[in-house]
Protein backbone atom coordinates (compact mmCIF):
# COMPACT_ATOMS: atom_id res chain seq x y z
CA UNK A 1 0.00 0.00 0.00
CA UNK A 2 1.27 3.50 -0.79
CA UNK A 3 2.70 5.24 2.28
CA UNK A 4 0.62 8.08 3.72
CA UNK A 5 0.58 10.37 6.75
CA UNK A 6 -0.74 9.28 10.13
CA UNK A 7 -3.82 11.45 9.71
CA UNK A 8 -4.75 10.17 6.27
CA UNK A 9 -4.08 6.58 7.18
CA UNK A 10 -6.17 6.56 10.33
CA UNK A 11 -9.01 8.37 8.62
CA UNK A 12 -8.86 5.79 5.84
CA UNK A 13 -8.98 3.04 8.43
CA UNK A 14 -11.95 4.55 10.19
CA UNK A 15 -13.79 5.06 6.95
CA UNK A 16 -13.83 1.42 5.94
CA UNK A 17 -14.19 -0.47 9.21
CA UNK A 18 -17.40 -2.43 9.67
CA UNK A 19 -20.58 -1.31 11.38
CA UNK A 20 -2.71 -15.66 37.49
CA UNK A 21 1.03 -15.40 37.09
CA UNK A 22 1.93 -16.80 33.72
CA UNK A 23 -0.10 -18.47 31.05
CA UNK A 24 -0.83 -22.18 30.96
CA UNK A 25 -1.28 -24.59 28.11
CA UNK A 26 -2.52 -28.10 27.53
CA UNK A 27 -0.78 -30.59 25.22
CA UNK A 28 -2.42 -31.23 21.86
CA UNK A 29 -5.48 -33.38 22.30
CA UNK A 30 -5.98 -32.30 25.92
CA UNK A 31 -9.48 -31.63 27.15
CA UNK A 32 -8.66 -28.42 29.02
CA UNK A 33 -8.49 -25.07 27.20
CA UNK A 34 -5.28 -23.10 26.88
CA UNK A 35 -5.36 -20.23 29.38
CA UNK A 36 -3.43 -17.07 28.60
CA UNK A 37 -3.01 -13.70 30.29
CA UNK A 38 -3.53 -10.27 28.72
CA UNK A 39 -1.75 -7.28 30.30
CA UNK A 40 -3.41 -3.90 29.76
CA UNK A 41 -3.52 -0.39 31.26
CA UNK A 42 -7.28 0.07 31.12
CA UNK A 43 -8.71 0.94 34.52
CA UNK A 44 -12.46 1.20 35.12
CA UNK A 45 -12.32 4.87 34.11
CA UNK A 46 -10.07 4.25 31.11
CA UNK A 47 -11.61 1.54 28.97
CA UNK A 48 -11.69 -1.27 31.53
CA UNK A 49 -15.34 -2.16 30.84
CA UNK A 50 -14.57 -2.46 27.12
CA UNK A 51 -11.64 -4.79 27.86
CA UNK A 52 -13.85 -7.01 30.01
CA UNK A 53 -16.62 -7.03 27.41
CA UNK A 54 -14.22 -8.14 24.68
CA UNK A 55 -12.49 -10.76 26.83
CA UNK A 56 -15.84 -12.17 27.91
CA UNK A 57 -17.03 -12.31 24.30
CA UNK A 58 -13.83 -14.08 23.25
CA UNK A 59 -14.07 -16.62 26.06
CA UNK A 60 -17.69 -17.38 25.20
CA UNK A 61 -16.87 -18.00 21.54
CA UNK A 62 -13.50 -19.78 21.90
CA UNK A 63 -13.85 -22.82 24.13
CA UNK A 64 -10.31 -24.03 23.37
CA UNK A 65 -8.73 -20.77 24.60
CA UNK A 66 -9.55 -18.74 27.69
CA UNK A 67 -8.14 -15.26 28.33
CA UNK A 68 -7.60 -13.70 31.75
CA UNK A 69 -7.25 -9.92 31.63
CA UNK A 70 -4.70 -8.39 34.01
CA UNK A 71 -4.98 -4.66 34.65
CA UNK A 72 -1.59 -2.99 35.25
CA UNK A 73 -1.68 0.25 37.29
CA UNK A 74 0.42 3.38 36.68
CA UNK A 75 -0.19 3.29 32.94
CA UNK A 76 2.53 2.13 30.57
CA UNK A 77 5.48 2.76 32.87
CA UNK A 78 3.85 0.58 35.52
CA UNK A 79 3.01 -2.07 32.94
CA UNK A 80 6.61 -2.16 31.71
CA UNK A 81 7.94 -2.61 35.24
CA UNK A 82 5.49 -5.43 35.97
CA UNK A 83 6.13 -7.05 32.61
CA UNK A 84 9.87 -6.97 33.24
CA UNK A 85 9.33 -8.68 36.61
CA UNK A 86 7.03 -11.32 35.10
CA UNK A 87 9.55 -12.12 32.38
CA UNK A 88 12.37 -12.35 34.92
CA UNK A 89 10.25 -14.78 36.95
CA UNK A 90 9.62 -16.90 33.85
CA UNK A 91 5.89 -16.15 33.88
CA UNK A 92 5.24 -13.61 31.12
CA UNK A 93 1.74 -12.87 29.86
CA UNK A 94 0.96 -14.23 26.42
CA UNK A 95 -0.22 -10.84 25.14
CA UNK A 96 0.44 -7.33 26.40
CA UNK A 97 -0.30 -3.80 25.33
CA UNK A 98 2.92 -1.84 24.79
CA UNK A 99 2.86 1.92 24.25
CA UNK A 100 4.35 3.23 21.02
CA UNK A 101 6.97 5.03 23.09
CA UNK A 102 8.11 1.77 24.74
CA UNK A 103 8.08 -0.43 21.64
CA UNK A 104 11.78 -0.08 20.81
CA UNK A 105 12.76 -0.91 24.38
CA UNK A 106 10.44 -3.91 24.65
CA UNK A 107 11.53 -5.32 21.30
CA UNK A 108 15.20 -4.92 22.16
CA UNK A 109 15.13 -6.17 25.74
CA UNK A 110 12.23 -8.59 26.30
CA UNK A 111 12.02 -12.12 24.83
CA UNK A 112 9.03 -12.13 22.51
CA UNK A 113 7.63 -13.43 19.24
CA UNK A 114 7.52 -10.78 16.53
CA UNK A 115 4.11 -10.28 14.98
CA UNK A 116 5.74 -10.60 11.55
CA UNK A 117 6.88 -14.12 12.48
CA UNK A 118 3.65 -15.08 14.21
CA UNK A 119 1.55 -14.18 11.16
CA UNK A 120 4.04 -15.22 8.46
CA UNK A 121 1.56 -17.78 7.13
CA UNK A 122 -1.34 -15.31 7.17
CA UNK A 123 -0.21 -12.30 5.08
CA UNK A 124 -3.79 -11.10 4.66
CA UNK A 125 -3.98 -10.07 8.31
CA UNK A 126 -1.05 -7.65 8.07
CA UNK A 127 -2.06 -6.36 4.65
CA UNK A 128 -5.28 -5.01 6.17
CA UNK A 129 -3.27 -2.24 7.88
CA UNK A 130 -2.23 0.97 6.09
CA UNK A 131 1.54 0.86 5.61
CA UNK A 132 2.35 3.82 7.83
CA UNK A 133 0.06 2.57 10.62
CA UNK A 134 1.83 -0.79 10.41
CA UNK A 135 5.09 1.18 10.64
CA UNK A 136 4.06 2.25 14.16
CA UNK A 137 4.62 -1.37 15.19
CA UNK A 138 7.97 -1.78 13.45
CA UNK A 139 11.48 -1.80 14.90
CA UNK A 140 14.32 -1.76 12.36
CA UNK A 141 11.85 -2.53 9.61
CA UNK A 142 10.23 -5.57 11.23
CA UNK A 143 6.69 -5.70 12.65
CA UNK A 144 7.30 -6.50 16.32
CA UNK A 145 3.92 -5.35 17.66
CA UNK A 146 0.57 -4.91 15.93
CA UNK A 147 -0.97 -1.41 16.21
CA UNK A 148 -4.15 -1.53 18.28
CA UNK A 149 -5.07 1.88 19.72
CA UNK A 150 -4.46 5.42 18.44
CA UNK A 151 -5.28 8.59 20.35
CA UNK A 152 -4.31 12.23 20.84
CA UNK A 153 -4.91 14.80 23.59
CA UNK A 154 -7.95 17.09 23.67
CA UNK A 155 -9.46 19.63 26.06
CA UNK A 156 -12.42 18.26 28.00
CA UNK A 157 -14.32 21.15 29.56
CA UNK A 158 -17.28 21.82 31.81
CA UNK A 159 -19.54 24.19 29.87
CA UNK A 160 -21.61 24.89 33.00
CA UNK A 161 -18.55 26.26 34.82
CA UNK A 162 -17.71 28.41 31.79
CA UNK A 163 -21.21 29.93 31.93
CA UNK A 164 -20.98 30.43 35.68
CA UNK A 165 -17.72 32.34 35.17
CA UNK A 166 -19.28 34.53 32.48
CA UNK A 167 -17.39 32.81 29.65
CA UNK A 168 -18.90 31.62 26.38
CA UNK A 169 -18.72 27.81 26.31
CA UNK A 170 -19.08 27.92 22.53
CA UNK A 171 -15.64 29.56 22.42
CA UNK A 172 -13.22 27.41 24.43
CA UNK A 173 -9.54 28.38 24.59
CA UNK A 174 -7.54 27.94 21.41
CA UNK A 175 -4.11 28.82 22.80
CA UNK A 176 -2.23 28.24 26.04
CA UNK A 177 -2.44 31.96 26.80
CA UNK A 178 -6.23 31.65 26.61
CA UNK A 179 -6.16 28.55 28.82
CA UNK A 180 -4.34 30.60 31.45
CA UNK A 181 -6.60 33.65 31.10
CA UNK A 182 -9.85 31.68 31.12
CA UNK A 183 -8.57 29.42 33.86
CA UNK A 184 -7.90 32.43 36.08
CA UNK A 185 -11.35 33.85 35.38
CA UNK A 186 -12.94 30.52 36.31
CA UNK A 187 -10.88 30.22 39.49
CA UNK A 188 -11.67 33.80 40.56
CA UNK A 189 -15.39 33.65 39.82
CA UNK A 190 -16.32 30.07 40.70
CA UNK A 191 -13.59 28.79 43.01
CA UNK A 192 -13.05 25.77 40.75
CA UNK A 193 -9.62 24.92 39.40
CA UNK A 194 -9.07 26.28 35.91
CA UNK A 195 -7.18 23.51 34.15
CA UNK A 196 -5.16 20.32 34.47
CA UNK A 197 -2.79 18.52 32.08
CA UNK A 198 -2.61 14.75 32.41
CA UNK A 199 0.79 14.08 33.95
CA UNK A 200 1.59 10.43 34.62
CA UNK A 201 4.15 10.02 31.83
CA UNK A 202 6.02 12.08 29.24
CA UNK A 203 3.30 12.05 26.58
CA UNK A 204 2.01 15.48 27.61
CA UNK A 205 5.60 16.68 27.99
CA UNK A 206 6.27 15.87 24.34
CA UNK A 207 3.00 17.44 23.20
CA UNK A 208 3.87 20.73 24.91
CA UNK A 209 7.50 20.84 23.81
CA UNK A 210 6.84 19.91 20.17
CA UNK A 211 3.86 22.27 19.89
CA UNK A 212 6.24 25.03 21.02
CA UNK A 213 8.70 24.10 18.27
CA UNK A 214 11.12 21.93 20.25
CA UNK A 215 12.01 18.28 20.78
CA UNK A 216 12.79 16.00 23.69
CA UNK A 217 15.25 14.21 21.40
CA UNK A 218 16.44 16.19 18.39
CA UNK A 219 16.56 14.60 14.92
CA UNK A 220 20.35 14.27 15.26
CA UNK A 221 19.94 12.17 18.42
CA UNK A 222 20.96 14.86 20.90
CA UNK A 223 18.69 15.99 23.72
CA UNK A 224 16.65 19.15 23.17
CA UNK A 225 15.64 19.50 26.81
CA UNK A 226 17.50 22.76 27.42
CA UNK A 227 16.57 24.39 24.12
CA UNK A 228 14.34 27.46 24.64
CA UNK A 229 11.11 25.84 23.33
CA UNK A 230 11.41 22.97 25.82
CA UNK A 231 12.30 25.19 28.78
CA UNK A 232 9.52 27.67 27.96
CA UNK A 233 6.89 24.93 27.61
CA UNK A 234 7.71 23.20 30.90
CA UNK A 235 8.08 26.51 32.74
CA UNK A 236 4.62 27.52 31.54
CA UNK A 237 3.24 24.27 32.92
CA UNK A 238 4.89 24.94 36.26
CA UNK A 239 3.68 28.54 36.27
CA UNK A 240 0.06 27.43 35.86
CA UNK A 241 0.49 25.51 39.11
CA UNK A 242 2.69 27.81 41.17
CA UNK A 243 2.25 31.31 39.72
CA UNK A 244 -1.23 31.44 38.19
CA UNK A 245 -2.51 28.93 40.77
CA UNK A 246 -5.15 27.67 38.34
CA UNK A 247 -3.89 24.08 38.23
CA UNK A 248 -3.67 21.57 41.10
CA UNK A 249 -0.47 19.55 41.50
CA UNK A 250 -2.20 16.18 41.93
CA UNK A 251 -2.34 12.81 40.19
CA UNK A 252 -4.36 12.52 37.03
CA UNK A 253 -6.81 10.23 38.83
CA UNK A 254 -7.43 12.93 41.44
CA UNK A 255 -7.80 15.54 38.71
CA UNK A 256 -10.24 13.35 36.83
CA UNK A 257 -12.41 13.03 39.93
CA UNK A 258 -12.21 16.79 40.52
CA UNK A 259 -13.34 17.32 36.93
CA UNK A 260 -16.26 14.91 37.27
CA UNK A 261 -17.33 16.50 40.57
CA UNK A 262 -17.41 20.00 39.06
CA UNK A 263 -14.28 21.27 40.83
CA UNK A 264 -12.11 21.50 37.70
CA UNK A 265 -13.12 23.28 34.50
CA UNK A 266 -10.65 21.99 31.90
CA UNK A 267 -9.13 18.51 31.86
CA UNK A 268 -6.51 18.15 29.10
CA UNK A 269 -6.03 14.45 28.44
CA UNK A 270 -6.29 11.61 25.95
CA UNK A 271 -9.42 11.20 23.88
CA UNK A 272 -9.33 7.57 25.03
CA UNK A 273 -11.02 8.73 28.24
CA UNK A 274 -14.03 10.09 26.38
CA UNK A 275 -16.43 7.18 26.82
CA UNK A 276 -15.79 6.98 30.56
CA UNK A 277 -16.04 10.75 31.14
CA UNK A 278 -19.20 11.05 29.07
CA UNK A 279 -20.82 8.24 31.03
CA UNK A 280 -19.98 9.77 34.41
CA UNK A 281 -20.34 13.51 33.78
CA UNK A 282 -23.41 15.17 35.30
CA UNK A 283 -22.75 18.49 33.54
CA UNK A 284 -22.55 19.76 29.97
CA UNK A 285 -19.36 17.99 28.85
CA UNK A 286 -17.68 19.33 25.73
CA UNK A 287 -14.36 18.84 23.93
CA UNK A 288 -12.01 21.16 22.07
CA UNK A 289 -8.79 21.04 20.10
CA UNK A 290 -5.49 20.79 21.98
CA UNK A 291 -4.20 24.35 22.63
CA UNK A 292 -1.44 25.91 20.56
CA UNK A 293 1.38 28.30 21.43
CA UNK A 294 0.08 31.31 19.54
CA UNK A 295 0.25 30.68 15.80
CA UNK A 296 2.78 27.85 16.06
CA UNK A 297 1.55 24.58 14.52
CA UNK A 298 -0.07 22.10 16.86
CA UNK A 299 1.84 18.80 17.20
CA UNK A 300 0.15 16.03 19.14
CA UNK A 301 1.88 12.69 19.79
CA UNK A 302 -0.08 9.72 18.51
CA UNK A 303 -0.73 7.90 21.76
CA UNK A 304 -1.98 4.39 22.23
CA UNK A 305 -0.40 1.00 21.92
CA UNK A 306 0.56 -2.08 20.00
CA UNK A 307 -0.10 -5.68 21.02
CA UNK A 308 3.00 -7.83 21.56
CA UNK A 309 3.32 -11.56 22.20
CA UNK A 310 5.55 -12.80 25.03
CA UNK A 311 4.32 -16.40 25.24
CA UNK A 312 7.08 -19.03 25.10
CA UNK A 313 4.97 -22.16 24.56
CA UNK A 314 3.75 -22.86 20.98
CA UNK A 315 0.22 -23.56 22.21
CA UNK A 316 0.16 -20.24 24.04
CA UNK A 317 1.53 -18.47 20.96
CA UNK A 318 -1.25 -19.96 18.83
CA UNK A 319 -3.81 -18.87 21.43
CA UNK A 320 -2.30 -15.38 21.48
CA UNK A 321 -2.60 -15.23 17.72
CA UNK A 322 -6.31 -16.13 17.90
CA UNK A 323 -6.92 -13.48 20.56
CA UNK A 324 -5.14 -10.76 18.58
CA UNK A 325 -7.09 -11.62 15.44
CA UNK A 326 -10.27 -11.36 17.51
CA UNK A 327 -9.37 -7.95 19.00
CA UNK A 328 -8.40 -6.57 15.58
CA UNK A 329 -11.60 -7.70 13.83
CA UNK A 330 -13.85 -4.89 12.51
CA UNK A 331 -16.75 -5.42 14.92
CA UNK A 332 -14.49 -5.67 17.95
CA UNK A 333 -12.44 -2.63 16.95
CA UNK A 334 -15.72 -0.72 16.75
CA UNK A 335 -16.60 -1.91 20.27
CA UNK A 336 -13.14 -0.81 21.43
CA UNK A 337 -13.41 2.62 19.81
CA UNK A 338 -16.90 3.34 21.14
CA UNK A 339 -15.96 2.01 24.57
CA UNK A 340 -12.89 4.22 24.88
CA UNK A 341 -12.47 6.99 22.34
CA UNK A 342 -9.47 5.37 20.68
CA UNK A 343 -9.42 5.51 16.91
CA UNK A 344 -9.30 2.13 15.16
CA UNK A 345 -6.12 0.92 13.52
CA UNK A 346 -7.02 -1.74 10.97
CA UNK A 347 -8.04 -1.42 7.35
CA UNK A 348 -10.60 -4.18 6.80
CA UNK A 349 -12.04 -4.91 3.40
CA UNK A 350 -15.65 -3.86 2.84
CA UNK A 351 -18.08 -2.71 5.50
CA UNK A 352 -19.80 0.55 6.37
CA UNK A 353 -18.43 3.99 7.04
CA UNK A 354 -17.48 3.72 10.69
CA UNK A 355 -16.13 7.28 10.83
CA UNK A 356 -19.64 8.65 10.65
CA UNK A 357 -20.91 5.89 12.93
CA UNK A 358 -18.34 6.81 15.56
CA UNK A 359 -18.97 10.54 15.29
CA UNK A 360 -22.73 10.05 15.43
CA UNK A 361 -22.39 7.89 18.53
CA UNK A 362 -19.73 10.13 20.10
CA UNK A 363 -19.64 13.56 18.41
CA UNK A 364 -17.21 14.74 21.09
CA UNK A 365 -14.55 12.71 19.25
CA UNK A 366 -14.51 15.33 16.49
CA UNK A 367 -11.50 17.35 17.78
CA UNK A 368 -9.38 14.19 17.98
CA UNK A 369 -10.31 13.24 14.43
CA UNK A 370 -9.50 16.75 13.20
CA UNK A 371 -6.12 16.66 14.94
CA UNK A 372 -4.98 13.50 13.19
CA UNK A 373 -3.43 15.61 10.46
CA UNK A 374 -1.25 17.18 13.16
CA UNK A 375 -0.19 13.92 14.81
CA UNK A 376 3.48 13.06 15.29
CA UNK A 377 5.08 9.81 16.51
CA UNK A 378 5.24 9.36 20.28
CA UNK A 379 8.95 9.19 21.12
CA UNK A 380 10.90 8.23 24.22
CA UNK A 381 14.51 8.37 25.34
CA UNK A 382 16.23 5.95 22.91
CA UNK A 383 18.38 2.94 23.70
CA UNK A 384 18.55 0.20 26.34
CA UNK A 385 18.40 2.78 29.14
CA UNK A 386 15.10 4.17 27.90
CA UNK A 387 13.09 3.46 31.06
CA UNK A 388 15.73 5.03 33.28
CA UNK A 389 15.92 8.10 31.08
CA UNK A 390 12.14 8.38 30.98
CA UNK A 391 11.97 8.40 34.78
CA UNK A 392 14.69 11.04 35.07
CA UNK A 393 12.76 13.33 32.73
CA UNK A 394 9.48 12.65 34.50
CA UNK A 395 11.03 13.40 37.90
CA UNK A 396 12.52 16.64 36.54
CA UNK A 397 9.17 17.81 35.24
CA UNK A 398 7.40 16.87 38.46
CA UNK A 399 9.96 18.90 40.43
CA UNK A 400 8.96 21.94 38.37
CA UNK A 401 5.27 21.34 39.03
CA UNK A 402 6.02 20.95 42.74
CA UNK A 403 7.80 24.32 42.74
CA UNK A 404 11.13 22.80 43.80
CA UNK A 405 13.02 23.85 40.67
CA UNK A 406 12.58 26.13 37.70
CA UNK A 407 12.41 24.49 34.29
CA UNK A 408 15.90 25.59 33.21
CA UNK A 409 17.69 24.01 36.16
CA UNK A 410 15.49 20.90 36.26
CA UNK A 411 15.87 20.18 32.56
CA UNK A 412 19.61 20.92 32.61
CA UNK A 413 20.04 18.41 35.42
CA UNK A 414 17.93 15.86 33.54
CA UNK A 415 19.96 16.40 30.38
CA UNK A 416 23.24 15.94 32.26
CA UNK A 417 22.00 12.66 33.73
CA UNK A 418 20.35 11.27 30.59
CA UNK A 419 23.09 12.11 28.06
CA UNK A 420 25.51 9.39 29.31
CA UNK A 421 22.65 6.89 29.02
CA UNK A 422 22.08 7.53 25.30
CA UNK A 423 23.30 5.02 22.69
CA UNK A 424 26.79 5.77 21.45
CA UNK A 425 27.02 6.93 17.81
From TrEMBL:
<comment type="similarity">
    <text>Belongs to the bacterial solute-binding protein 1 family.</text>
</comment>
<feature type="signal peptide">
    <location>
        <begin position="1"/>
        <end position="18"/>
    </location>
</feature>
<keyword id="KW-0732">Signal</keyword>
<dbReference type="InterPro" id="IPR050490">
    <property type="entry name" value="Bact_solute-bd_prot1"/>
</dbReference>
<dbReference type="Pfam" id="PF13416">
    <property type="entry name" value="SBP_bac_8"/>
</dbReference>
<keyword id="KW-0813">Transport</keyword>
<dbReference type="GO" id="GO:0030313">
    <property type="term" value="C:cell envelope"/>
</dbReference>
<protein>
    <submittedName>
        <fullName>ABC transporter substrate-binding protein</fullName>
    </submittedName>
</protein>
<dbReference type="InterPro" id="IPR006059">
    <property type="entry name" value="SBP"/>
</dbReference>
Amino acid sequence: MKRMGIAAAVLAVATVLAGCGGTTSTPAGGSQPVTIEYYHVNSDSFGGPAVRELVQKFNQTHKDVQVVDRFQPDMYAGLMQNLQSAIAAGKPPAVSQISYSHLDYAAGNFPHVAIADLFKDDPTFLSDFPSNILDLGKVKGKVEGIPYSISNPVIYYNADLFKKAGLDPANPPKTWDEVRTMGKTIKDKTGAWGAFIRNEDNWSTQALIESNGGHIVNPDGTLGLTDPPAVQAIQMWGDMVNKDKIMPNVTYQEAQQAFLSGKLAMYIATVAELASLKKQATFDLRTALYPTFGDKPRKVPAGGNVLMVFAKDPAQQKAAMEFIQFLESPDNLKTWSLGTGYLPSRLAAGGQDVTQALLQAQPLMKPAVEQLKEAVPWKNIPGPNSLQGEKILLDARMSVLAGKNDAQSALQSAKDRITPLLPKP
